[in-house]
Amino acid sequence: MKLNLEGACVIVTAGAQGIGRAIVQAYLDEGARVATCDIDEAALDGLPDEVFRRRADMGDAGQIAEFMEAALAHFGGLDILVNNAGIAGPTGPVEEIDPADWDATLAICLTSQFRCARLAVPALRKSGNASIINLSSLAGRLGFAMRTPYAAAKWGVIGFTKSLAVELGRDGIRCNAILPGIVAGDRQRRVLEAKAQRRGTSFEAVEAEAFSYTSLKEYVQPDQIADQILFLTSPRGRTISGQAVSICGDAQMLA
């Protein structure tokens, strides 16, 4: 399938590893121009030479602004923004959650998307194929015990996305959210390990419980998420906006 993304200018936040890295590579494979940021300088150094990159903490408003301004100046415009940055946040009962951890989780998982979008929109209005993708989570449509900061942020992403879709539709800017389920990788493993530790049980038991609530008993692969994002942001997805698209193996519950 030809997606016609050659030469598109794309910003992907937190694109040096995990899901973000898969998204960056997928756009490069389609001939797009890509800019990204990350807090891991070593991971940034491992990206292909053609990627414009900067170290940036997505919980810091000043660093977000510096990265976005540099990327927009580098491209001279923008077609696609992928708000991928996020952290897992703390695991524990609500009365034990440190308010500082709550603030940090919302700052990176939700507020950074607002900060990036408000800086990107003026450039997106000039594009003939403008699109914003916000990474939410399965926790953005299901309750998630012991992970209240993360779930609250990801539910917020859905409201932000749907509101942006209505607001920006008149400008021809599409806005959609992606809701990954149990994604293969170190971050998911750390989440399951933290839950196992809290419960005093094994990683394998927690993993089996998580998959017991899905129809398809397998991890979502980062490149599957990237493929969906590329379609939505390509001209083939030109009438898809305001959607929260789950890639989760048909999960019915979060353990």
Question: How do the helices and strands line up, and which of them pair or pack?
Answer:
Layout: E1 9-12, H1 18-29, E2 33-38, H2 41-45, E3 52-55, H3 61-75, E4 80-83, H4 99-124, E5 130-135, H5 148-168, E6 173-180, H6 186-199, H7 203-212, H8 222-233, E7 244-247
Parallel strand pairs: 1-2, 1-4, 2-3, 4-5, 5-6, 6-7
Helix pairs in contact: 1-8, 3-4, 4-5, 6-7
Describe this entry's structure for a reader.
With 255 residues, the protein is α/β, with parallel strands linked by helices. The protein has a single domain (9-183, 221-247), classed as NAD(P)-binding Rossmann-like Domain (Rossmann fold, 3-Layer(aba) Sandwich). It is built from 8 helices and 7 strands; from the N terminus they run E-H-E-H-E-H-E-H-E-H-E-H-H-H-E. A 7-stranded parallel sheet has the order 3-2-1-4-5-6-7, sandwiched between helices. Strand 1, helix 1 (18-29) and strand 2 (33-38) form a beta-alpha-beta unit. Helix 1 packs across helix 8 (222-233), helix 3 (61-75) runs parallel beside helix 4 (99-124) and helix 6 (186-199) crosses helix 7. The radius of gyration is 18 Å and the shape is globular. The mean pLDDT is 95.
